[in-house]
Structure formats: structure tokens, C-alpha cells
Design goal:
By secondary structure, the chain is of the alpha/beta class. It is built from twelve helices and 15 strands.
């Protein structure tokens, strides 16, 4: 069987690439710009190109057909329309990587199933994914475009550790604060439940959906069954570092007011407790089970980060911001107590 992965070197897609490349039943092609190829398996076939240049991509793919195509690179509705044009009639299955952030926010209850209403008024990223899903399902209804929709939740790898509040995608600034004995800002009181899936576990479910006829026309999320509070997750990191966990709890609304750019991801994703019902992926992929617990994933990630200098990206501005916010909020609390 032939598969084409567009991208293939990101946090999620790299794990899928490695797993599929190990299967002798699959002939794996990667379509990307060729900028991050050092860690790619030797047996993949690289198509070097820019998928955003549609005419160029069409020429590179001319005469090729696939059993499965998965595009990990896009989030805009216009990109969905482009892929429909590029791969109509060229693949037996097209997998769209959506997001679990499309579900009703705030959720009416913490137990999330694929049938939940799609509506996220807080995060443009999620709204664009909703529109992408709509376009793909419309193409399937109109002319049979063979789409499968996959909705990852928060997924990480051994190269990073997600925190509820951090500097962009970089986890080292928060880890560094822990090592230095500083307080780390935690939205709310850290007690809301969250689900974070290791990328290798996600890849197992994803591979089981590839060339799976029962998955055509379906939408399915792939997560671990483990749900932990943000406090529990941060405590596990502190334990692995052998340092105290020193949270500084700050109302989410205050954080968003101070850093409006965090509003989408905070209010539209991380603020509310979620527990994912994985019945559907287990039905479609019998035997699927996420086995890498948070503590195991943290252990692997800390080992990787501490031994890989390029993963320890400094962010003095974020560090100063945390210190300043804590100082100002402490002063405000002191003044509030003086009024009592």
C-alpha cells in the first residue's frame, strides 16, 4: 500500500512517519520542503516541494495515486479546498488532521464525544478547523471525496513538555524557573482536568485508521484515557527534576487581560476540564490503547531536553514577564488585604 504524508516532521506527524515506515506493508512518501530531514527513516521516499504552490505540487504528483494521503500542514479553509483539488481521484482515503478544540466551548459537560456540537467562539484556529471539516464533508457528499477526520487533543513528544502557561511552544523557560526555585504561573487554581497524549500513542491510533474503509466519512479523536489536573502534571515535572513545585495561581481572566494573545488558546481550549471518550477509535482500531503515561512521558522528555542543548531555548522576556506579574499581583493582594 502507498501512503503520502504532507509534512511528516512535526510533533505529531514525525511519530506517524516513524511508525508507518516500520511497516513493510506500506510504501511511504513524504511531501515537504526538505528542511528537516536528518531524523527521517531511511526507507521513506521524499518528494521535495512546497504544497502551498498548487501548480508546482500538481506537477510533482502527476501520475501518482495513493491508498492514503494525510496532510499535517494546514489550518486554513483555502488549503482544504486546494487539497480537494489536488487529491480528488488520486487517493482512496484523505485524512484531515483537525483538532479537539472544535467542540462546544465551554463544554456542557466534561465528557467529550465526537458527536458533540462544534462551536468555539474564543479561538479563531478552532473555527477555521470547523470550516475545513465542513468543506471536506461537503466534497464527500457531492462527489465522494474519501475523507476521514482526525481530531487530536493536546499532543506532545520527548522534545517538549506542555504546561498550561508557557512561552509559545517552548517548555524550557518554565522548566528553568522550576530548577531555579522560582514560582510558575498556573491559571485558575490548577485543579481543572486535562488530557495530554504522547505522540507515539497518537500514532498507533492514526496508523490504524489508514486505509481503514470503516473510517471513511467518520470523525474521530485520538487521545490517552489518562486525565490529570494541571497541578498533578506540573508536580510530576518537579518530581522528575527533584525540585519543589511552586505554583503561583492567577485568575485566567487576569492572564488574558495581561497577554491577550493567549486568549484563544486559554479560553478556547485549556480553561475547562475535558475527559475524552475514546470508544470510537477503539472500535475502528481494535486493540488501540495509549500506554505512555504522563510520568513516563515526562521522564523521557526531561532526559531528552537536559541532554540536547538546542531544546533548551531561553526566553528572558517571558521570565521577566512572569516575575513582574507575580510582583504586581502580590502588591495588589496586599492592598486588598489592607482594606479589610
Amino acid at each position: 500500500m502507498k501512503a503520502l504524508i504532507i509534512g511528516g516532521t512535526g510533533t505529531i506527524s514525525s511519530a506517524v512517519t516513524r511508525l508507518v515506515a516500520q511497516d513493510k506493508d506500506w510504501e511511504l512518501y513524504l511531501f515537504n520542503r526538505g528542511n528537516h530531514t536528518d531524523d527521517l527513516p531511511d526507507n521513506i521516499r521524499l518528494i521535495k516541494g512546497d504544497i502551498t504552490r498548487e501548480a508546482e505540487a500538481a506537477l510533482l504528483l502527476e501520475g501518482m495515486t495513493f491508498d492514503c494521503v494525510a496532510d499535517f500542514t494546514w489550518r486554513e479553509p483555502a488549503q482544504a479546498e486546494r487539497d480537494i483539488r489536488l487529491f480528488r481521484g488520486k487517493t482512496k482515503q484523505f485524512i484531515f488532521i483537525s483538532t479537539a478544540a472544535i467542540y462546544q466551548t465551554p463544554p456542557p459537560h466534561p465528557f467529550i464525544t465526537e458527536g458533540m456540537l462544534q462551536n468555539n467562539p474564543y479561538w479563531e484556529y478552532a473555527r477555521k478547523k470547523i470550516e475545513c471539516e465542513r468543506l471536506l464533508l461537503e466534497a464527500m457528499r457531492e462527489d465522494g471525496f474519501p475523507v476521514t477526520i482526525v481530531r487530536p487533543s493536546h499532543t506532545y513528544s520527548e522534545k517538549m513538555i506542555p504546561f498550561c502557561l508557557q512561552a509559545g511552544a517552548e517548555s524550557w523557560p518554565v522548566i528553568k524557573r522550576m530548577i531555579e526555585g522560582k514560582q510558575v504561573i498556573v491559571p485558575g487554581d490548577g485543579s481543572s482536568l486535562w488530557t495530554i497524549t504522547f505522540n507515539e500513542d497518537f500514532a498507533k491510533g492514526f496508523k490504524g485508521l489508514m486505509s481503514n474503509q470503516h473510517a471513511i466519512g467518520e470523525a474521530v479523536h485520538i487521545t490517552t484515557d489518562e486525565s490529570l489536573t494541571w497541578n498533578q502534571m506540573a508536580q510530576a515535572v518537579a518530581d522528575e527534576l527533584n525540585v519543589p513545585y511552586k505554583p503561583y495561581y492567577l485568575p485566567t481572566d487576569i492572564i488574558v487581560a495581561l497577554k491577550p494573545e493567549m486568549g484563544g488558546g486559554m479560553n478556547g481550549d485549556k480553561r475547562h476540564s475535558v475527559i475524552f471518550d475514546n470508544t470510537k477509535i477503539k472500535r475502528l482500531v481494535p486493540g488501540y490503547c495509549a500506554t505512555i503515561t504522563w510520568r513516563v512521558g515526562v521522564h523521557r522528555a526531561i532526559n531528552k531536553i537536559m541532554t540536547t542543548p538546542e531544546l533548551r531555548v531561553e526566553d528572558p522576556e517571558f521570565d521577566r514577564w512572569c516575575d513582574q506579574v507575580i510582583e504586581v499581583y502580590d502588591e495588589a493582594l496586599e492592598k486588598a488585604h489592607a482594606l479589610q
